[in-house]
Amino acid sequence: MSSTNTRDADAKIDALIAAGAELRMGALEERCEAIARALKRLRDPADALGQEARTSLPKSTGLSPAMVDWALEQSLRDIDANALNTLAERRASSPEEVQALAPRWVLLILAGNLFTACLRSVLPALVYGAPLWIKVSSKGDGFPALLQRALCAEDPRLAAALHLDEGKGEAMPESCFARAEVAIAYGSDATCRAIRERLPIHSNFIAHGHGLGLSYVARATLEDAELRAQALQGIALDLAAYDQRGCLSPHALYLESDDAEEGRSFAESLAHQAMKAMAERLPRGPLPYALGGAQLQWRSLAAYRGQLFEGEGFALSYEHAGSFRLSPGWRNLQILPCRDLEDFCARTAPLAHHLKCIGVAGPTALRRRLTEALPLHAAPRICAAGEMQRPPFLGLSDGDALERGLRRWREWS
After folding, report:
1. C-beta separation of 299 from 332 below 8 A
2. What pLDDT is recorded for position 390?
3. I need a surface site. Which of 141, 217, 323, 329 has the fewest CB within 10 A?
């Protein structure tokens, strides 16, 4: 990189640091209220920015208009001024004994699979007054720019605290890595490792590498007609959300049943009833050409190993004697039997930290048992079926607090 480009990057980082200092001079409550108003505009389909989001994002993300509308509503529904203030007030100890410290600026590197993922890093940083250099995905979903415009309309200081690096195919300035106090990265494990190697040893690195979800259907749910119907609807939503492209999306579903006929019947009902209805309510976006071969291979193997149920924009396989394999995404789900919860934990233990979410169709007590039965290296979000892609804003992220790495504490006695 030329010295001119280096100087330009350094100047932009210095400007961000100055913008952060100005942002922190304002009242925290006013900052939270301005952020909440900006998000409300994006959530509102009657607002000009909300309308633009629903017009432009289907083209840039590859999601259907109905799915974009659902994603905006679900991602922004519980982020208000109260939630943002609660985030700001979280403390490690009593206020007399600790001092909260935020980074002067944050480097954020985004992936292109989930356009709303940036919210869980951008919002806490802005609440704490930490500006961000945001490397937008080379696929460019357009949401960070819409977010910046919404923030600018409510408080220009918030917009000035975001620098969007939209250079497609261009190497990031080395200064971004050399000067980063905190770096957050979304992407493959290989991408995250490469970023870590470019950072100084003192940089705090928060990696969101490859992740996936699983679904689990309890014996009691299979035996109760009403619970079974609810499970079918919830699992269909979990699979359809974001076209199965998120790290919380289920790649396989485990049934607590060794009965092959029962498993086949459940898969058939999920396909021909719940998924068929979901395809009409939230249609899948067009399948990228590059993924056509992977999907064909997955479905061919599914048909060979078990029974394949295909529909408009989705496919389910029931494999009574199969073993887990990754789905190509885009609404392709493997269904497998297991004896009980312990068998499920044993089968999924090799996924380790890659397991990000488990959607459970069963009693609440079963979710509690699952938290105790999983090995320590696994810290997925455990929720009811139908809630996998709707995590609460203030909930945990990768087994840790949402604000991890964005706030440090110094304690004295």
Report:
1. yes
2. 94
3. 323
**Could you tell me which residues are beta bridge partners of residue 154?**
none
Query: Which pTM value belongs to this model?
Result: 0.94
- What DSSP line would sit under 123-182, residue for residue? HHHHHTT--EEEE--TT--SHHHHHHHHHHHH-HHHHHTEEEE--TTPPPPHHHHHT-SE
Q: Are strands 381-384 and 355-361 parallel, antiparallel or unpaired?
A: parallel
Mean pLDDT for the stretch of residues 186-204: 94
Centre a 10 Å sphere on the Cβ of residue 119 and count the other Cβ atoms it contains: 19
- CB 298: neighbour CB atoms within 10 A? 22
Contacts of 362 (CB under 8 A, 6+ apart): 216, 217, 218, 220, 221, 256
Per DSSP, what are the bridge partners of residue 165? 135
Cβ-proximal residues to 14 (8 Å cutoff; 6+ apart), any chain: none
Amino acid sitting at position 349: A
Phi-psi region of 244 (alpha: psi -120 to 50; beta: other; left: phi over 0): left
Phi, psi dihedral angles at 75 (to 5 degrees)? -75, -30
pLDDT per position as a tens digit, 49-73: 999 999 999 999 999 999 999 999 9
